[in-house]
Amino acid sequence: MLFDNRIAELRAELTRHNQLYYQDAAPEVSDAEYDRLFRELEDLEKANPDLYDPNSPTQRVGGAPLDAFEQREHLLPMLSIDDLFADGEVAEFFKRLQKGLSLESIPLTVEPKIDGVACSLVYRDGALDYALTRGDGTRGDDISQNVRTIQSLPLTLENAPTLLEVRGEIFMPSEGFAKLNEQREEDGLDTFANPRNATTGTLKSLDPKVVANRPLAFLAHGIGAHEGTEMETEDDFRKLLEQFQIPRNSPVWHVSTLEEVLAAIRELDVQRHDLGHGTDGAVIKVLDFSQRETLGFTSRAPRWAAAFKYPPEQKETLLKDITIQVGRTGVLTPVAELDPVFVSGTTVARATLHNQEEIERKDVRIGDTVVVEKAGEIIPSVVQVVLAKRPADAQPYDLPSVLNHQCPSCKAPIEKADGFVAWRCVNFECPAQAVTAITHFAGRKALDLDGLGESVAIKLVESKLASSPLDLFSLTVEDLGGLMLDPAKSADGLTKSKERRFGAKRAATLVNSLERARHEMPLSRWLFAMGISQIGESAARELARLHEKLSDLPDSPIVSDLADLPDFEELQKSKRKKEHHPRLKDYKIDDNLGPVAAQNLRAFFQSEAGQTVLTKLSELGIDPQSDNYAPDPEAASEGLPLVGKTFVITGTLSQPRPEFKKIIEANGGKVSGSVSSKTDYLLSGEGGGSKKTKAESLGVPVIDEEGLQALIS
């Protein structure tokens, strides 16, 4: 009972703080205090799984991955609305309303048509029961776990009706969309064409933790089924939304004549560019619910609503040059430098071209006249080239050739990895990458440097105290203590007057962490921290098993022999496999370390940047040692009972799946994402879904947590 009460208290308190932060922009506690309460609730819920609540604030960060979306029927059909494309079509719609209601003047509303994904939220007795996509209008996908990660959306309502179905749009705000695409470019991944595509792709993810890290938002615009409350007009529904602090669509115009409808549509076309999210039209609705019933529905849409669609604004302009930006992870992004042109409410002078493949697909050349628009009315984008206006001397653009295969920031070699679309500078010491390199170097999975996050890394680089990760080891408590940080930010984004320094206490903690990293952090953590392409955690662990210390790697015959093999795709067609190599066959190298990773590692240590790193490490007296060195396969498996075994994880377990992945890998096993004939065990919690069915059909042993512990023991 003690735990019951404390869990209830924490849930209520955190829900209140979420509301103060996300809805009211008036937080009462610091981030640190909020995190302390959140961790306390997480710990209590883990210790008391029988008190699980899907609407707990802890579910905001996403639950266990799903095997598939379930489908459910809508309480009422979720129809689309008819589109209108010209003033004349608006006039015809208004005449139909007049005829259907036998009225000259009809109370209507006009509001933005949000460019998002339609969603229905069903609250029962004040708690979010489930959330569905529109689907075919009759049935939709149950995306409840994903919707619960949207921070601005209340999961519980006080003094709520028995049943309340709220319909609206899930979308990606402009600023969040821009940052997401920027991050994807930095990672060398394809960017999203527009916010709606990004939102759709995010909501289709079966991993709610991925969704929780995406900047999704929700705005309500309509009501579905409801019981326990009386509403006569749309305005009554809006008052209810305000009472429960459910975000609602705005602005709204109240009109009653055709002239007022057209005027509202024109006013909205001006204002919508400042709303902070994509819009593509104006929705016109009858205000009175009884009048809606009189007008009724067609088979696909209500007769009492329609959407006027704004045409995308496009302008022609001259592409004067293509410049290259070096991102914080080394990705090279081509940018179109344009003659300034006014598009969708702002002047556009630059537009990203994303990558070389995009340039080739659109055949963009310097000197071209191009058509520009804003993707989702937000991000400037080159739509196409006007070939009829192309200069005779315009030449195809090839990024690596223009740059002479060198990074414009540091002149180090550039490369494009298989499976990626972006060219990248691979220099560990590249000044353009300093912030991200230092942040990654200091991360928990890397060297775990206390107090060194991105904001501190930015200030270290700006103040010229560090231009690369290894510069950190030359810093003193005095250097760090006087570091001026950004002024503190309040929740509404306004700068407070009081400035903050890093401080002597935090400086001492960071210096101690650096000393621990210098003397105690194992080789695998150092290899991962160095951020070498294709050297992730698993590859780093395998390299550390095969090598005693970092200084053994540059001239490692194992790395050299592995790098000389074909990549895995070719290995499947070839007999030149690792186990057939005269030296490699004795090592039984894990598949997490393959030819491509070895090639990247060898190229790094042979490059000028890699040699600089080795020289600096030697000057600093740093030569990280392996904590699992065992090149002999027999020695490698000693004390690691799961060596050679491949696991797949599914179902609801007592801990998140990544925790079980760590346990399996720590005992020598591997974890795969899908069941196949090569799977040795399926670790299944409650449920199991399609993976469990497939495992049983293939004869793969299905074990629970006790079974896993038995294997380890």
Describe this structure in words.
The protein is an alpha+beta fold. The protein has 6 domains: 2-52, Orthogonal Bundle (Helix Hairpins); 82-309, DNA ligase/mRNA capping enzyme (D-amino Acid Aminotransferase, Chain A, domain 1), CATH 3.30.470.30; 315-402, OB fold (Dihydrolipoamide Acetyltransferase, E2P); 431-519, 5' to 3' exonuclease, C-terminal subdomain (DNA polymerase, domain 1); 523-637, 5' to 3' exonuclease, C-terminal subdomain (DNA polymerase, domain 1, Orthogonal Bundle); 646-712, Rossmann fold. 35% of the residues lie in helices and 19% in strands. It is built from 26 helices and 24 strands. A 5-stranded mixed sheet has the order 2-11-10-3-9. Strands 14-13-12-15-16 form a 5-stranded antiparallel sheet. The longest helix is centred in the first third of the chain and has 22 residues, at 2-23. It is globular. The chain starts with a helix and ends with a helix. The model is unreliable at 490-497 and 568-580 (pLDDT under 50).
Topology at a glance:
Blueprint: H1 2-23, H2 31-47, E1 71-73, E2 82-84, H3 87-101, E3 108-114, E4 117-124, E5 127-133, E6 139-141, H4 144-147, E7 163-171, H5 174-186, H6 195-203, H7 208-212, E8 217-227, H8 234-244, E9 253-255, H9 258-271, E10 279-286, H10 289-295, E11 305-309, E12 315-326, E13 332-343, E14 346-352, H11 356-362, E15 369-375, E16 379-385, H12 399-402, E17 414-415, E18 424-425, H13 434-442, H14 454-462, H15 477-481, E19 484-485, E20 500-501, H16 504-519, H17 523-529, H18 537-546, H19 557-563, H20 568-571, H21 595-606, H22 608-620, H23 633-637, E21 646-650, H24 657-666, E22 670-672, E23 681-684, H25 689-698, E24 702-703, H26 705-712
Helix pairs in contact: 1-2, 13-14, 17-18, 19-21, 21-22
